[in-house]
Design brief:
Chain lengths: 319, 185
């Protein structure tokens, strides 16, 4: 396990040189973007002037040139920074991944496929807008893992009624589990019980879509999570008392909504994030240790799940 | 008139629903108990294998091996009552863990493929047994709650359903994963 001191040393000896090169590229892009911004602003002003002359009502008419200007600016900005983002991920994120564990491989544009996302059965809604990036795979100790950032959304309606809601956004992690099992076990954040107490539990037991409600004896675990599964005994075989404790600690450590499922001898862990992960900054300097620390901590969180859940312990017949 | 019929139907339906849920809960308890039994049998089936593997190495602990063999014979015979079986199970758990401890003194045995395979199977079984016991206790809690809580308690007393006892889970079993320490040691 790498510490912050290791990272600081790695930052000074290796990353800083790359960051300096990238920083120069970033400044050049920002320079270009100021010109683009000025040009767009002038165009918008002309548009507004013409509208005022031809007597278009000032509201909501004034919004159109502004919106078109903003969209144009964002489009050009993303076009200009594309190469920079690719270069940044290819060097900095790639190196941080290798720094965490030399056996891990990073691919910026790949992600966990939708079919795997659905196999986990954590989320029942099938997303129709699905994207992701920052795919990492490899072996940590004896355990095969893979994870990526994902953004899955469900879009319904059309035209004016169109609405979009997020099914999941964050880190999605998969690892080979250390015990054999054939059943399905899903661990979800507990919302009903927190709000309604005992009645919440009763509602949960009626959730027929999810399978049987599995009531576990650890009161702290039950406070955070609700567990559904297809087999009462196997679910407890997977969620041993020590694993429950480890999951609670992991939940505390992340302090985010986390979802787990155990399907087909694999464990799936979804950690919710609101921010976009592993993206470089454009309008502020990247020569900042805290920024690198943030990437490191998010990556380490995922790679560390193996240790957090003790997946390298292979004392059962599965090796 | 319609309202009267609806009330009548509901009044008729509630006891039926309660009755069915009680039966389901009782069956869940019996079902899990059956699984524990099956798992324990599986563990008993391992014992002759274990004894055969270990026998060649262990010269000083012969009594331990004969003890466990006798216990197995007793446990699988039909004449043993349920209560005796539970007691035997606990004893077997203790003797098995003692054998596993003694193995530490025989590095050759510890490293043999045969023994390692046995040890893995045994740890897995022990953990499955512990999981089944926990499932049993959860099922019993559910059942006992229904037997004691109003209004299901009324129907339960008519059906002559009584509280059931829990499995005692020892401190050692709670930390069953620690058994793995013997691998790293």
């Amino acid at each position: 396990m790498k510490t912050l001191d290791d990272l600081r040393q790695f930052y000074n000896t290796t990353l800083l040189a790359d960051l300096n090169v990238l920083e120069a590229g970033r400044k050049a892009i920002v320079q270009k973007l100021t010109y683009v911004g000025a040009a767009v602003a002038i165009l918008v002003a002309i548009g507004l002037f013409i509208m005022a002359q031809s007597g278009v009502p000032s509201f909501p008419g004034i919004l159109f040139p502004l919106i078109i200007g903003a969209v144009l600016f964002v489009f050009i900005a993303s076009l200009l920074s594309k190469g920079y983002v690719r270069k940044f991920k290819g060097t900095i994120i790639q190196k941080i991944v290798r720094f965490i564990d030399d056996d891990l491989r990073y691919t910026a544009h790949r992600y966990i496929p939708k079919s795997t996302f659905m196999t986990s059965e954590i989320f029942k809604t099938k997303p129709n807008r699905y994207k992701g990036d920052d795919y990492v795979s490899g072996k940590v100790g004896t355990t095969q893992i893979e994870f990526s950032e994902l953004h899955a959304e469900y879009e319904s309606g059309s035209g004016k009624n169109r609405s979009r809601r997020t099914v999941f956004k964050g880190l999605f992690f998969i690892a080979d589990f250390n015990k054999h099992f054939t059943c399905k076990t899903i661990v979800l954040p507990d919302t009903a019980e927190k709000l309604f107490g005992g009645f919440g539990k009763m509602f949960q037991s009626w959730n027929v879509l999810r399978g049987q409600l599995i009531k576990l004896e650890d009161p702290e675990f039950e406070k955070f999570f609700v567990v559904y599964g297809s087999d009462q005994i196997q679910a407890r075989y997977i969620l041993s008392t020590s694993l429950m404790e480890r999951i609670i600690n992991f939940k505390r450590k992340t302090d985010r909504p986390i979802y787990l499922s155990f399907v087909g001898s694999r464990v799936f862990v979804a950690v919710s994030y609101t921010k976009n992960l592993f993206e470089p900054r454009l309008f502020r300097t990247i020569l900042d240790f805290e920024l690198v620390q943030e990437y490191f901590e998010d990556l380490q969180l995922a790679a560390g799940i193996v240790d957090d859940l003790n997946l390298n312990t292979r004392i059962w017949s599965k090796q | 008139m319609l309202i009267a019929i609806i009330i009548f139907v509901i009044a008729l339906l509630i006891p039926v629903l309660i009755y069915n849920s009680l039966v389901a809960k009782k069956n869940q308890v019996l079902n899990v108990f059956g699984t524990i039994d099956a798992l324990l049998k599986k563990r008993y089936d391992l014992i002759p294998n274990l004894v055969a593997t270990v026998k060649g190495y262990m010269q000083h602990e012969r009594t331990l091996l004969t003890e466990v063999t006798e216990m197995r014979a007793k446990a699988i015979s039909d004449r043993t009552s349920d209560d005796e079986k539970v007691e035997l199970d606990n004893k077997v758990t203790k003797v098995l863990s003692r054998i596993m401890l003694v193995v530490e003194n025989y590095p050759d045995l510890k490293a043999s493929d045969n023994f390692m395979h046995l040890q893995r199977t045994l740890t897995e079984l022990e953990e499955q047994i512990s999981a089944a016991r926990r499932a049993y206790n959860a099922a019993v809690t559910d059942y006992n709650n229904a037997v004691e809580m109003f209004p299901t308690s009324m129907v339960a007393s008519m059906m002559n359903y009584k509280r059931r006892r829990f499995f005692e889970i020892s401190e050692k079993e709670r930390q069953v994963v620690d058994a793995g320490k013997s691998f790293t040691a």
